[in-house]
Amino acid sequence: xxxxxxxxxxxxxxxxxxxxxxxxxxxxxxxxxxxxxxxxxxxxxxxxxxxxxxxxxxxxxxxxxxxxxxxxxxxxxxxxxxxxxxxxxxxxxxxxxxxxxxxxxxxxxxxxxxxxxxxxxxxxxxxxxxxxxxxxxxxxxxxxxxxxxxxxxxxxxxxxxxxxxxxxxxxxxxxxxxxxxxxxxxxxxxxxxxxxxxxxxxxxxxxxxxxxxxxxxxxxxxxxxxxxxxxxxxxxxxxxxxxxxxxxxxxxxxxxxxxxxxxxxxxxxxxxxxxxxxxxxxxxxxxxxxxxxxxxxxxxxxxxxxxxxxxxxxxxxxxxxxxxxxxxxxxxxxxxxxxxxxxxxxxxxxxxxxxxxxxxxxxxxxxxxxxxxxxxxxxxxxxxxxxxxxxxxxxxxxxxxxxxxxxxxxx
Length: 411
Fold this sequence. Notes:
The chain is α+β, with helices and mostly antiparallel strands. It has two domains: about 5-55 and about 265-405, no CATH class; about 70-250, no CATH class. The protein is about 55% helix and about 20% strand. It has helices at about 5-20, 20-60, 70-75, 90-95, 130-135, 160-165, 200-205, 210-220, 235-245, 260-300, 300-310, 315-350, 375-400, 405, and strands at about 65, 100-115, 120-125, 140-145, 155-160, 170-180, 185-195, 205-210, 225-230, 255, 355, 365. The chain has a six-stranded mixed β-barrel with strand order 2-3-8-5-7-6. A two-stranded antiparallel sheet has the order 11-12. The longest helix is centred in the first third of the chain and has 41 residues, at about 20-60. It is elongated and about 100 Å long. The two termini are about 35 Å apart. The mean pLDDT is about 85.
């Protein structure tokens, strides 16, 4: 088919669409409404994904973790068997890699935290307070102050862990931990602050100390893992491959954040299925609406269809004409929906959406709607594909009409 013929057919299809104004407006409203609903719901879920991802990265995991091989399988039971040396030249090499914002050592340890007559088990992380400023932005201090190098014995405790022990900011506690040789060591510390993260289970069990305190308790030097923070999360896999290739080390394991974020992956999987269900419902509504609109158009234009077929228009040309009408309805409705949806998303995001605490969290938050190019393309594709699919049956019926019967229609 030549471009001139296609352009001519498209112009005729457009005239047919605007000729049936009331029915076309109803169809366009249905399509646009479905697209707006998808953009708002999908944009909100996308914002949740992005916020949860960044909170997980900037409070617990970093973008890349560097450990000894086997640490994540066996190291939690015996972390001191997987220590990284503080003098390893790889640390400085990674720190000066383009795209790396910072690298911070952490020492994982476990023990008991005691206050007055109460004691409770904890999981701890010894960190470098200076390097953790950028890496721990997702760790929110809800009372008191964050870790500081100016207070070597000041620690921060998860809000849930503090509640279970009955402690508050300013209290003095004693940390007890076992050493690699089976001994017990203890350090007196002051609660400098209480924190929350995106994961309640983490807040219920973890505390953080300056790295020297953790090393003093554990009677070790070095760290169990190094956390690498990148400039952009999207560069994780490419920079991970580059760091691996540059280091050429077999005694070191490099692990991306998404391999460790089990809760995040399950949440994304669950909510993605829910959005898929929303898309299916929207598609069904659009298909039923467009099928009804074009079916009514076929009935009303039966005599017209018989006339053009009698003048020599082939069946496939008639079918193409109705498919083009469906395509135009999809493009117009999709464009209207994307435009209105984008404006609504901006307005709603400006004011925010007050939300109660999500499962696994202890505090509420203000939601926003994140509309990106991928969501816009998905919304347009939904509008166009569903209208094309809905146009097939009416177009096929129109093309299969008997010319004589069509000319006699309503006579």
